[in-house]
What does this fold into?
Amino acid sequence: MPRIDSATGVVVTLTTAVALAPTAAFAVDYMSADEAAKLMFPQADRFEVRTLTLDAAQLQQLQAAGVAPRSARWQVRVAQRDGTTLGYVVVDDVIGKFELISYAVGIGSDGAIRQVEVLSYRESHGHEIRLPAWRKQFVGKDASAPLRVGDDIANISGATLSCSHVTEGVRRIVAVIDLARHLGTLT
Amino acid sequence: MSDLHHVAHAVRRARPLLGTLVEVGVCDARHDDAGRACEAAFDAIAEVQRCLSRFDPASDIARFNALAAGASIDVRGDTACVLSAARQLFDDSDGVFDVSLGRGAGWVLRAQRLHKLQRDTHIDLGGIGKGHAVDRAVQALLRAGCAAGWVNAGGDLRSFGHASVAIHLRDEQRGGVVAFGRLRARAFATSCFDIDARSQLWHTRPERRPRAHVSVAAPSCLMADALTKVVAASGDPQHALLARHQAQAWLH
It folds into this structure.
């Protein structure tokens, strides 16, 4: 095992030859959707789960606004206090080249983004990540049952992971909530 | 209690920032305190992003890039800090490290006043800006009373205290990750230099650019990130600047 000591006495230890085959996957769970909702709206005394269904005209409206709607059905947690709506939390996931990222977006009742939190991160081979069976194994996991495939801790260093999928997803969710607010379907 | 135990029981948060996924980990803090410390770390990163992002028209860098020759602007502390380091690296590397893509003579920083000397000078602090943001986030965690933890901004990573953090390298071609080593009280950055990669070396012709990953461990994340460029451009993992900054490099 090569061991490289720096001038400062700090150690970087090479445990494995880099040329070895990649590990199959690893995953980190940061928090559950409910935990994210509470973190974003700590004043809320209730989160009402609503399903928002967009019709064809509404989907077209989003498309015309430059947002690919992707889905007609959206689950929205409506944060309330004493019956007043404080805002909305929407959970979504996006697939990158090698990663699946679940995230939650908190939007205030004024339509402004309050917070974006990553709920979980899965990294795997590109061919696996697109298989429904592979993705299904993560459904229903939450922070109380952390799933860590392979190593218990992992920090990826590499060519910078682009978060453009998440950015697009956040934009889509903001547009969907904006539409719903104007239609009055969430009140 | 082992180091691994500390890290496995850490509070971890992740947010999309700096165009990538930023993870903050705090070891051994009570849950509420750890949450507040993570918030402070994310705030620090967001502040650096507001100063340095080319894509934010209100940032110091976007305002500089829009300046006419001969004009100048006041910049914030983070911007001045990163630009000072960039200038020093430019001088020390004989111009190999250049945040203005080959136009290092086109700007000058005097105190916190940034002057544009040449019309088509543009600054991009993407890489070392990310490293600086990680350093700032670590400082925020220390100020919040955290004894150990780490910050990882999509490959620019720093651990502090007794946290011993596993490093995995992504396989860019096939996907999946490879275990590389462990990092303790140190920063680590990997850049991929490839024809299609986001990191490009300004002064080498496309056909001569190395196709490699370069990793550097250094005391600060700004320096680790900057030195990946110096090593990639020189092709020398023993470059003299590494020893001067107590850094080590790997080509892989």
Remarks:
- Chain A has one domain: 24-183.
- Chain A touches chain B through 55 residues (CB under 8 Å).
- Strands of chain A lie at 3-5, 11-14, 25-29, 46-53, 73-81, 84-95, 99-108, 113-124, 155-157.
